[in-house]
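#onboarding

Welcome to the new folks! Below is a worked example of what a typical request in this channel looks like: someone posts a single protein sequence, and someone else replies with the predicted structure as tokens. Don't worry about understanding the tokens yet, we'll cover that in week two.

Example request:
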Amino acid sequence: MNRPVILEGLGIWKLYGAHPETFLKRHNYQPTDECLAAGHMIGAVRAANVKIHQGEIFVIMGLSGSGKSTLVRCLSRLVEPTAGKVFFEGRDLLEMSDADLIDARRKKMGMVFQHFALLPHLTALQNAAFPLEVQGVSRKIREDRAREMIDLVGLKGREAYYPRQLSGGQQQRVGIARSLVAEPDLWFLDEPFSALDPLIRREMQDEFLRLQALLHKTIVFITHDFDEAIRLADRIAVMKDGKIEQTATPEELVLNPATRYVEEFTRHIPRAKVMKLRSVMSTGVPEGPYSGALAGDLTVAATASQIGAAPHPFKVLDEDGRPMGTIDARAAIDVMIGHPGA
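Example response:
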């Protein structure tokens, strides 16, 4: 990935217990599980390294208690790490003054959490405009901007509704509009859809992908749902007991798990959901006929019905739209049924 790095965490630790900084120094920042237990320390985040590129959706996932939310709070400095470095747009976030940190959060970071935290006495429009009100932006400018965001998330006509008059999915859309109103460079989403029922959750995932296609934000997204992760992510960091087990694309995680835990975590994910056409295509583009062309970064699952119903193979295109290979129904079916060669 050649895009510039917008957020980087190096050797991040977050310990809970008595004198955690002293404890880490005493153990040369490499305490074992036994040392942590003997010192009555809880290792919420343990020696985590992350590098997040501009414009990507970076998903941090793991089961409850794995440390994913704590890591994101360290990366945004909502929680002070016990040790490590955090660089945001090249600046050391941990060395920023309180004033600079507040300014960065207000103007450069957007945040959406599982619980919508809308202000009940404000309308949808006023809730969406609230971050700009805090910044001292004039009423007309902030409401014009908030109205644009309300329209963007599909709530046009509900600007005057109060939170109690909105469904859970609609409330979450207001939360998303509010987080986008200041045009953040970096967008943190902590299990934003997990409180929604499955149908609304799927709709919100669709909405999220639509917004990302329009806005091209850099996104750090937390989830415990692997299906959600592989649907949304460019890359995924899998956490367990405060440690990052592996960081990779969804395809790499499923095909080449780095640890036994990642292997077990991804065991039941159908390969067709993560395998890209470029990974299963035949190289070279002989004379046709062809039924059309498909982008190489599409998954087999997303294109299988189209490929299977076509009388001829498809060309597979690279990022610049140039043909780089072909795929036919036989190749797609092999992946769908788990053929050993797929």
